[in-house]
Automatic annotation (TrEMBL):
GO terms for cellular component: plasma membrane. Gene3D superfamilies: MetI-like. Its main location: membrane. It is found in: Cell inner membrane; Cell membrane. The chain crosses the membrane at residues 20-40, 67-88, 100-119, 131-151, 184-206, 226-245, 266-291, 311-341, 353-374, 380-397, 429-454, 487-508. This is Iron(III) transport system permease protein. It is a multi-pass membrane protein.
Length: 516
């Protein structure tokens, strides 16, 4: 039990309540179900079968394409995102807040919707290059936002020293400033890499075969569970290697007293040449796709073909599962966040790490593993809303844990101690003091889960009950058969529905936009 101990606010050692540890352990166990069952299912096929599957030429092609796309996207997003962050924080640009908001806009547009918008205008798009460019456009904000935040708090003293020793602006930046913002850049690159590995909708639209393509084909075409499970496990291994590499590469520097670096003015010609760099991702990932969507939407044949009852049913299903997923994910994340916010130790770290598993599990992998799990363990729940909502909760619980942990950690423990002096129980004191103060963070976490649920595609395709379609699946079903006009209303409503909680988040706190 010594691993649970920590130094309390008054200097005494405290241990987490057994009940809290039990609840957090149950939540962590629930989050681990997809990965554990996938390992069991793939291992049950036998080593010979696994080797045979992995040695197929098609699997090698899927793997090379997946890794190549992830590496190219991560590198380009890292370079472009860092450049945008530097421009917006170190150079005096007009309306800097507006430019920062524009640079974050691609987060609100699912990659498959961006692909749809481009295919409406150029139906012949396919292959690696369009997939790479569009993935880069929609993932750049994952690097821009944390790097911009790090640049604001980075000291400018060392960069000034480097300039005085004869370094140029770029050389001084890499020598003095880059080491300070490297952890933020690497963390953002991790999100880009995981997003690229798990991408399904966009690469399928662009007909670029990756592992997610192969998993879906193995499952839907021949219902080859063994091959699908093996490919899914291979994709999980890649994701876990990326996470392990990120943790090894991230090195926090000792804290220093920061001296804010004021944005410096530059010539109008240079400014005009730099602003297109900032605008590139929003234009490619948001404005061009939305323009194509709007053009197709206002066409007369599209308006005449709108099936209003089916459209409203998809909106209702999208909102229903989003709300349910937000509630379930919040309930699962709350004990883990409360434990991690107040206590330290190996057991606490292990529970929190398992809770973050969904961060490294692609949606198609979670969907496939829960298909296997439901058929084998709870067949009555197969293709039910219960399993679908649970999949969302596992996938997006890390978003809730991060924000809720921060909110709970900001509540001073002394306030709870004061409440205890009135004679109430620890649980009652926590409910009266911590919950009201941390409620905004809990709400942010729930909204983040809801937005991610609305945009989720591969797990929804595998797990949705028969006859129930969300806006994402309706858009997908029509796009894959090139019915771009019929898909336009669903795409437009998906953008509008997902924009509402995103707008709420933008008014709550800045970190919410970074979590999107």
């Amino acid at each position: 039990m010594t691993t649970l101990a920590r130094s309390g606010p008054t200097g005494t050692d405290t241990r987490p309540p057994v009940g809290l540890v039990a609840l957090a352990s149950v939540a962590a166990a629930a989050a681990a179900i997809p990965l554990v069952y996938l390992v069991v299912r793939a291992g049950g096929t036998g080593l010979d079968s696994i080797i045979q599957t992995l040695s197929r030429g098609r699997v090698l092609e899927y793997s090379v394409n997946t890794l190549g796309l992830a590496l190219a996207t991560t590198f380009s997003a890292l370079v472009l995102g860092t450049a945008i962050a530097v421009i917006l924080t170190r150079i005096r640009v007009p309306f800097p807040r507006t430019w920062l908001l524009l640079s974050a806009l691609p987060l609100a547009v699912p990659s498959y919707l961006a692909g749809y918008g481009w295919l409406v205008s150029i139906p012949t798009l396919s292959g690696f290059v369009p997939s790479w460019l569009l993935l880069t456009a929609v993932t750049v904000p994952y690097v821009t936002l944390p790097v911009a935040a790090a640049l604001r708090s980075a000291t400018g003293d060392l960069e000034g020293v480097a300039r005085s020793l004869g370094r140029g602006p770029i050389g001084a930046f890499f020598v003095a400033t880059w080491p300070q913002i490297r952890p933020a850049a690497i963390a953002g690159s991790l999100l880009v890499a995981l997003y690229s590995l798990s991408e399904f909708g966009l690469v399928a639209m662009m007909r670029y075969p990756t592992l997610t393509w192969g998993i879906n084909s193995a499952y839907s075409a021949s219902f080859d569970r063994a091959q699908a499970a093996t490919l899914a496990l291979l994709l999980v291994v890649m994701a876990l290697v990326v996470v392990a590499g990120e943790r090894g590469a991230r090195r926090q520097l000792p804290s220093t007293v920061a001296r804010a670096v004021r944005p410096r003015p530059i010539g109008r010609g240079m400014l005009i040449s730099l602003l297109p760099v900032v605008a590139a991702a929003p234009v490619v990932g948001v404005f061009v796709p939305l323009a194509g969507l709007g053009t197709r939407l206002v066409q007369a044949d599209t308006l005449r073909a709108i099936d209003v009852p089916r459209l409203l049913a998809a909106v209702g299903a999208t909102l229903g599962v989003a709300v349910a997923a937000a509630v379930v994910a919040t309930l699962l994340a709350l004990p883990i966040a409360a434990l991690a916010a107040r206590y330290r130790g190996r057991l606490v770290t292990a529970i929190e790490s398992v809770g973050y598993l969904g961060h490294a599990l692609p949606g198609i992998v979670v969907g496939l593993s829960l298909v296997f799990f439901a058929l084998a363990v709870v067949p009555a729940l197969y293709q039910s809303v219960v399993v679908l909502v649970f999949a969302y909760a596992v996938l997006f619980m890390p978003k809730a844990i991060g924000t809720m942990r921060a909110g709970l950690g900001d509540v001073p423990p002394r306030l709870i101690a004061v409440a205890r002096t009135t004679g109430v129980s620890p649980l009652a004191a926590w409910w009266r003091v911590t919950v009201p103060l941390a409620l905004p963070a809990v709400g942010v976490g729930a909204l983040l889960v809801a937005i991610a649920t609305m945009k989720e595609l591969p797990a929804t395709l595998l797990l949705r009950p028969t006859g129930i379609n969300t806006l994402a699946t309706e858009l997908w079903n029509r796009t894959v058969v090139f019915e771009f006009g019929a898909a336009a209303p669903y795409a437009a409503l998906l953008v509008l529905v997902a924009a509402v909680p995103a707008m709420i988040l933008s008014g709550v706190r800045t970190t919410a936009k970074e979590e999107l």
